[in-house]
């Protein structure tokens, strides 16, 4: 998340409001959690962490024995209230960094990283709501940090999550999301399955469309803030539909990554 999915390289729509100097540091792997068949969360204990905002990301740097280095960005999935840092990584075909992180990394290893990075795509409970989160694939990662922060802060801020995935099996954090929605009357959760549907599926089938957005995005009078994260085409399509529905373009914040996704 973040940066999640695809090439795992995301770019915020706007330039960061500010970018403090950050240095490379190391973190020890405390746990590795399988989220789906293609996605794992890496739980890190940073050597020195000053905290982050929900929605930010870090850069990870791998160094080979011959000195060759590769860097990728990954969204932070954990809320600022937690001391451990959770990064969610999706397998990318021929991805040299994601392949190492998913196949070779072990508990107890150390990772080199720097962050937090990104000052545009952030939200905290002090900014209020309502908020409407729209995720495509592993674009859920930075949005999950926002939802986890919202839960920890016990702020009754109205929120909506519209999550597009290929199938139920590819929904990341599904059990936690379902529990959140069941226990929180101020949170609305909508899945949109684009490829495979259970026979008894009563939810949305197909891509997120204008009707689904209109039904689950609050009203214009409520002035919701939108956070959209996913593949580039997904983010651009959702943003365009929201503007056509009459929502304020300045209230739409986006984060995007490579060509794959829901």
TrEMBL record:
InterPro entries per the UniProt record, alphabetical: Cbr1-like_FAD-bd_dom, FAD-bd_FR_type, Flavoprot_Pyr_Nucl_cyt_Rdtase, FNR_nucleotide-bd, MRET, OxRdtase_FAD/NAD-bd, Riboflavin_synthase-like_b-brl
Residue ranges annotated for the FAD-binding FR-type domain, each copy included? 22-123
Alphabetically, the GO molecular function entries are:
oxidoreductase activity
List the Pfam families: FAD_binding_6 (PF00970), NAD_binding_1 (PF00175)
Q: Which cofactor does it need?
A: [2Fe-2S] cluster
The record's PANTHER family line, in alphabetical order, gives: NADH OXIDOREDUCTASE HCR (PTHR47354), PROTEIN RFBI (PTHR47354:SF5)
**Name of the featured protein:** Ferredoxin reductase
Organism, scientific name:
Bradyrhizobium barranii subsp. barranii
């Amino acid at each position: 998340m973040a940066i999640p999915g695809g090439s795992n390289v995301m770019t915020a729509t706007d330039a960061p409001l500010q970018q403090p100097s950050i240095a490379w540091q190391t973190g020890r792997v405390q746990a590795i959690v399988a989220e789906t068949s293609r996605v794992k969360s890496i739980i890190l204990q940073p050597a020195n962490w000053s905290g982050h905002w929900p929605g930010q990301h870090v850069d990870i740097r791998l160094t080979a024995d011959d000195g060759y280095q590769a860097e990728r960005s990954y969204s932070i999935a954990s809320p600022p209230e937690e001391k451990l840092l959770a990064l969610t990584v999706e397998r990318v075909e021929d991805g040299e960094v994601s392949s190492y992180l998913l196949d070779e990394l072990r508990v107890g290893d150390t990772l080199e990283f720097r962050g937090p990075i990104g000052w545009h795509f952030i939200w905290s409970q002090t900014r209020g709501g309502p908020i409407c989160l729209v995720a495509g694939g592993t674009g859920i990662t930075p949005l999950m940090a926002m939802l986890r922060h919202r839960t920890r802060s016990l702020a009754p801020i109205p929120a909506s999550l519209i999550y597009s995935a290929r199938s139920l099996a590819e929904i990341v954090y599904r059990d936690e999301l379902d529990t959140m929605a069941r226990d929180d009357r101020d949170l609305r959760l909508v899945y949109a399955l684009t490829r495979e549907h259970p026979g008894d599926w009563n939810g949305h089938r197909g891509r997120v469309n204008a009707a689904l957005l209109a039904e689950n995005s609050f009203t214009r009078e409520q002035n919701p803030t939108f956070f959209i994260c996913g593949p580039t085409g997904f983010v651009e399509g959702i943003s365009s539909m929201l503007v056509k529905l009459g929502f304020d373009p300045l209230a739409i914040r986006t984060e995007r990554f490579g060509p794959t996704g829901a």
